Inverse folding.
């Protein structure tokens, strides 16, 4: 089985015990949404996704070896 590295930022880290990143086994063809669901990260909490330093999306399929960055919405005043 292939692996991906998922880096979660800000409040999203609370879903993986505060770790800055986790390795996840994936089957080729699984989507980023599938991986986040397995980690318990609600898709509605995510706003920005990068795959290998390029813009990505929840529906993007994975082959293994990718580095995924996931950011929540960031508010300010």
């Amino acid at each position: 089985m292939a692996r991906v590295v998922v880096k979660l930022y800000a409040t999203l880290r609370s879903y993986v015990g505060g770790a800055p990143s986790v390795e996840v086994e994936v089957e080729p063809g699984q989507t980023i949404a599938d991986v986040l669901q397995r980690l318990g990260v609600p898709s509605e909490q995510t706003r920005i996704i990068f795959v290998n330093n390029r813009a990505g999306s929840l529906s993007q399929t994975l082959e293994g070896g990718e580095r995924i960055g996931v950011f929540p919405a960031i508010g300010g005043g």
About this structure: The helical segments are 32-39.
